[in-house]
Amino acid sequence: MNELTIFKAIVLGLVQGLTEFLPISSSGHLVITQRLFGLAGDSSVMLLFDAMSHIGTLAAVMIVFAGTFRDYLGRLVRESSAGYTGRRTGWWISILGFAACVPTAIIGFGFKDQFEAAFDNITSTAVGLAVTGGLLFATRLVPRPSRGWRRIGIGRAVLVGIAQGCAILPGISRSGSTICMALFCGFKKPWAAQFSFFIAAPVILGAGLIKVKETLERSSEMMEAVPWAAVLVGTGVAFVSGMVALKVLIGLVIREKIHHFAWYCWGLSLVVLVWGLRTT
Q1: Which listed site, 98, 119, 128, 136, has its alpha carbon 20 to 30 Å from 26?
Q2: Closest to 17 measured CA to CA, from 54, 42, 66, 45
Q3: Which residues are 71's β-sheet partners?
Q4: What gap in Å lies between CA 250 and CA 247, rounded to an integer?
């Protein structure tokens, strides 16, 4: 297979950073891009690149939401003090986040083999993109969300977590599916985006660590062939483009414009489907 050059790493990093957060499926775009470049997704180089790019996008989340996370941790500290008598909203958000991550983990580990097989089927990517488009378009039909944190129950958090778990499939956007589900469940628009990335942080970190583990299990000879310059450049590009994509997405969610990405997903789904049929 072709080698990972700096140019290809820049393109892949840009694709990872933008599509990880814009609701158009990073996995679907990476499958397409890797095929175009002739790169083996299960090679040591690509496993390491995926792990590093995940770290880059996680860093983007932590920086863009630094103020939100700081306020959240400060609230947790205050609510943990012995003399605190107010509402423990911070702890409730923690419970909701944990409830959302449980089904994500169950789906991810329980159906790992099936998900990995789907990455070898370009038709699965086309179907996933079409589903993502449907979810995005459906946000136009839901009433204006108005639920505050205290009115969001564990059941609704679990539904958002299920949506995140299903987003492991290629073509299903993680940010798109979780934000859409949060809106369907009545989350206020800013909180839908915040909760989506609140529960994304441990998932992105976990995915990166798993890929690092898989990479380290490869032979030392295979690791010596890693083009570190290309990997590091791609990681940096994923970080910068991820921050840009995050800020764009938050603005689109607040302005109720997220449904416009449905047309892109449907168009790309059609292109991928035709491409898949012609190459089989």
Answers
A1: 98
A2: 54
A3: none
A4: 5
Residue 147, SS3? strand
Question: Where do the structural domains in the chain lie, given as residue ranges?
Answer: 6-279
| Cα–Cα distance for residue pair 187/97, rounded to 1 Å | 14
Long-range residue pairs from 97-100, CB within 8 A, at least 24 positions apart, any chain: 97/157, 97/195, 97/198, 97/199, 99/154, 99/157, 99/158, 99/161, 100/157, 100/158, 100/160, 100/161, 100/164, 100/195, 100/199
pTM confidence score: 0.87
- For residue 213, which phi and psi values (nearest 5 degrees)? -60, -45
Section 247-271 average pLDDT: 91
The answer to whether the CB of 48 falls within 8 A of the CB of 213 is: no
The pLDDT value given to residue 218: 66
Please name the residue that has the structure tokens 């694709």. 15
Contact indicator for 176, 218 with CB cutoff of 8 Å:
no
- Whether 249 has a pLDDT exceeding 80, the answer reads yes
Total residues found in the chain within this entry: 280
Strands (E) in 23-163, as ranges, are none
Q: Please, what is the Cα angle at 142 between 24 and 61, to 5 degrees?
A: 40
Take residue 100 and report the two structure tokens written for it: 């959302």
Nearest to 32 by CA among 262, 269, 226: 269
